[in-house]
Write a structure and sequence with these properties.
Layout (H helix, E strand, L loop, with lengths): L4 H12 L19 E11 L12 E12 L4 E5 L6 H8 L7 E6 L2 E2 L14 E4 L13 H11 L6 H14 L16 H13 L5 E5 L7 H18 L2 E5 L3 H7 L2 E6 L2 E7 H6 L4 H8 L6 H6 L30 H5 L5 E4 L2 E3 L2 H4 L1
Parallel strand pairs: 3-8, 3-9, 6-7, 7-8
Antiparallel strand pairs: 1-2, 1-4, 4-5, 9-10, 10-12, 11-12
Helix pairs in contact: 1-6, 1-7, 3-4, 3-5, 5-6
């Protein structure tokens, strides 16, 4: 049975109140075999130049050398400011975005050159989108929305099996089977996101990429959706790449967390290690901005305010990309790009201060 809405809201509220090299080093990988392994992933968007020849005016380096891995049945949270490349990373993993470089290995198979429509991996990897209002076709009933993947991939041999599978999928995400003939506008935001999750589950995937699936919802509704995702993972052994900027939600769901800044991962670690003792100055600043429910603790906490704006991905700064805003930057940070150093215990950080 799915947990009650009150229980879900209480669980998430409790977590909100809690104080808070090019290829990935071997020590950064989770202990189990990899469900997904991303190596030196790059996604650049070339800009056309002006003039008669229209030579390239450069490229926006949205993702520029990202490496991580994910074990079966686990969640990797991918966090960072808007524009850091989180969603582009997710689309690239799904092969919905062309790669500039790097390698993606899913369930032991290199899918770097496969396309989303024709790739052999397509049934095993699905996505839950950020906007529960825009991701569902308003002209289709829930039955057609959830059943469309079954029809496309021929996973229902007859009408009776088709109806039964749709009913089972709706039950799985906490919706009633008799809701199947309604349209998306007849549902709340949380219910629409559950429909999106049911659609993602239709092909029995092993990996679901969640692109900020709760950011457009109220906090109480967020808790319901988070609870659904957790229970489905426990029941079905799903792996999640959970993209978000809400650190409280990420802490609630993730086993490991990767922090991105300007197209690169600056720190990756087990969830408890990262929240207890962040090593990178950017991670420290992000966590210091998370409010604490205890007023005494909140008053005593030191808030780290990051000055300035995020540099352009068209022309990233030399050296460490965070040095233009980092209060701890040293001369080396301005000239030398820090590699992602293995710190032991399954964590890595790209910071010269940790290497000193």
């Amino acid at each position: 049975m799915l947990s009650s809405e009150t229980s879900a809201a209480t669980n998430l509220a409790a977590h909100r109140a809690t104080p808070a090299t090019a290829a990935e080093p071997a020590g950064v990988r989770p202990p189990a075999g990899d469900l997904l392994r991303v190596e030196d992933l790059k996604v650049h968007f070339p800009l056309p130049g002006s003039g008669l020849l229209r030579r390239s005016a450069g490229a926006v380096k949205a993702v520029d050398g990202v490496s991580f891995s994910l074990a079966p049945g686990q969640t990797l949270g991918l966090v960072g400011e808007s524009g850091c490349g989180k969603s582009t990373t997710g689309l690239a993993v799904l092969r919905m975005q062309p790669l500039t470089g790097g390698r993606i290995v899913f369930e032991g198979e290199d899918i770097s050159t496969q396309q989303a429509r024709t790739g052999t991996f397509r049934r095993r990897m699905q996505m839950v989108y950020q906007d529960p209002y825009g991701s569902l076709n308003p002209r289709m009933t829930v039955r057609n929305l959830v059943g469309e993947p079954l029809q496309v991939h021929g996973m229902a041999s007859n009408k009776s099996e088709y109806q039964d599978r749709i009913a089972a999928l709706l039950k799985t995400v906490g919706l009633l089977p008799d809701m199947a003939d309604r349209y998306p506008h007849e549902f709340s935001g949380g219910q629409r996101q559950r429909i999106g999750i049911a659609r993602a589950l239709a092909l029995e995937p092993s990996l679901i990429i969640c692109d900020e699936p709760v950011s457009a919802l109220d906090v109480s509704i967020q808790a319901q959706v988070v609870n659904v995702l957790q229970e489905l993972q426990e029941r079905l052994g799903l792996g999640y790449l959970f993209i978000a900027h809400d650190l409280a939600v990420v802490r609630h769901l993730s086993h490991r967390v990767a922090v991105m800044y300007l197209g690169r991962i600056v720190e990756i670690a087990a969830r408890d290690d990262l929240y207890r003792e962040p090593l990178h100055p950017y991670t420290q600043a992000l966590l210091s901005a998370v409010p604490v429910a205890d007023p005494v603790v909140e008053r005593a906490r030191k808030r780290i305010v990051v000055q300035g704006e995020v540099p352009s991905a068209l022309k990233p700064p030399p050296g460490c990309r965070f040095h233009t805003r980092c209060p701890l930057a040293i001369a080396r940070c301005r000239s030398e790009d820090p590699p992602l150093l293995d710190m032991g215990g399954g964590r890595a950080v790209a910071c010269h201060l940790q290497a000193a």
